[in-house]
Automatic annotation (TrEMBL):
Residues 207-219 have a biased composition (Polar residues). Residues 207-227 are annotated as: Disordered. It comes from Panicum virgatum. Pfam families: D123. One of its GO terms (cellular component) is cytoplasm. InterPro entries: CDC123. This is Cell division cycle protein 123. Coiled coil: none annotated. Belongs to the CDC123 family.
Length: 421
């Protein structure tokens, strides 16, 4: 895979040209401090400190939130019973004075007020909920962190939580460009990213690049929920890279946060991955290869010609690469919406194909459409669902520590209620 092919698949590169045919999206440039945070480094390092090679890894901390919009329901002493909790405005209360935050005074906890304001404003512009992704990948492998098991975000705190927990986002930062055969790291790039002055930080975050949004001229699909695709690194490979010590290096490359409008009512059988080789559409795969959808085999005869026409009239004339993949969603009324582009090979998942099959000579003469034809033919999921620590219940495990802390917090709340009464 060549670097120019990978760069062409960045959402901020292709979205302006295909905006009318895609999902409303707001794109925001990310400051270096936030990238350091995502990479598990000090967001604002001390310029007088050493290299820090022997320092302990930073703990998983959410940024300090200035808006009060927390990713989890805060603890309110004046809502002691479950019914009151469910009926209260837990997530978006106007006051945070009664919210217990155990990390409030942690010395390594960063804050990004300008970025937080830009993200919250963009989410509001998109209707109140959005899917986040970086230049290439979305944090679908981190949905175990969210309350509803999806990538749906309603505030900056939820966006930061998913991005920080995602191996696929870590892959975007540390390995995406480096995996290209012609990648050469710029001279002077260092693993300890340069310190960004307050004025530079402000300039980076205030210059929000909004190139899409609710005012998009393209009609949004009525039954799309853009949450299933935008993650195309192999999670297992990403985890292996992280364990091998690959880390983000600040070489001046600009990363972006793309917030994509969230649509309820997803029909996963309506999404497809299309493979283009030598500028010919050679294969189409059911996007969710881990499930059998009884309606899909009969519907595919209607879907295939629509995808072919969409490729010939919209994609092929405007996209510059010879070899690539693109994902589409076909609505119930027959419209085709572009979801994403991904490079050919590399970390892009071939789904119901293999890359060896797709690269066979002569395949470009006939389009092959693959789907799961029966229940027993589904392939296992290609993404890990939860970290191993969440499956380990032994003494000293993550769950053991969590449950002990939960007991301590329950005791604290009960004592607080007793004192108040």
């Amino acid at each position: 895979m060549l670097l120019e092919e990978l760069l062409r698949c960045q959402i901020q590169e292709w979205y302006p040209a295909f905006r009318r045919h895609s999902i409303p999206t707001v794109i925001i440039p990310l400051p270096a401090a936030f990238l350091r945070y995502l990479a598990g480094q000090e967001a604002y390092p001390d310029p007088d400190a050493g290299s820090g090679a022997d320092e302990e890894p930073l703990p998983f901390l959410l940024p300090a939130i200035t808006s009060g919009r927390q990713p989890f329901a805060p603890i309110h002493a004046h809502h002691p019973d479950p019914d009151s909790l469910l009926n209260s405005e837990l997530f978006f209360g106007s006051s945070t004075e009664d919210v217990y935050d155990p990390d409030a005074d942690h010395p390594h906890r960063p804050e990004f007020p300008e970025l937080e304001a830009a993200v919250d404003a963009a989410i509001a512009e998109l209707g109140g909920a959005a899917l986040p992704k970086l230049n290439w990948s979305a944090p679908k492998d981190a949905t175990f962190m969210s309350a509803d098991g999806t990538t749906r975000c309603t505030c900056f705190a939820e966006v930061a939580m998913l991005l920080r927990a995602s191996d696929c986002v870590a892959h975007d930062l540390a390995s995406a460009r480096q995996s290209c055969e012609d990648f050469v790291r710029p001279e002077g790039a260092r693993r300890n990213a340069r310190k960004v002055s307050a004025s530079a930080e402000e300039a980076a975050t205030s210059n929000v690049n909004v190139i899409g949004g609710s005012s998009s001229t393209g009609e949004a699909p009525s039954d799309v929920e853009d949450q299933t695709n935008a993650v195309d690194c192999d999670a297992e490979d990403a985890q292996e890279e992280e364990s091998n010590g690959d880390a983000w290096v600040d070489d001046g490359f600009q990363y972006y946060l793309a917030l994509r409008k969230w649509y309820p009512g997803l029909r996963p059988e309506s999404e497809f991955r299309c493979f283009v080789r030598d500028r010919k559409l050679v294969a189409v795969s059911q996007r969710d290869a881990s499930a059998y959808y009884p309606s899909l085999p009969g519907w595919s005869s209607e879907v295939q010609p629509k995808i072919e026409v969409f490729f010939e009239e919209v994609i092929e004339p405007q996209f510059g690469s010879n070899n690539y993949t693109f994902d589409v969603y076909v609505t119930t009324d027959g419209r085709v919406k572009l979801i994403d582009f991904n490079p050919w090979g590399g970390y892009t998942l071939p789904l119901l194909f293999t890359w060896e099959e797709l690269e066979e000579e002569g395949r470009e003469h006939e389009l092959e459409f693959r789907m799961v034809m029966q229940q027993g033919a589904v392939r296992p999921g290609l993404m890990t669902a939860v970290p191993y620590d969440m499956l380990d219940w032994g003494e000293g495990s993550g769950w053991d520590v969590l449950l002990k802390k939960a007991d301590e917090e329950l005791d604290r709340q009960m004592n607080s209620l007793d004192g108040a009464s």
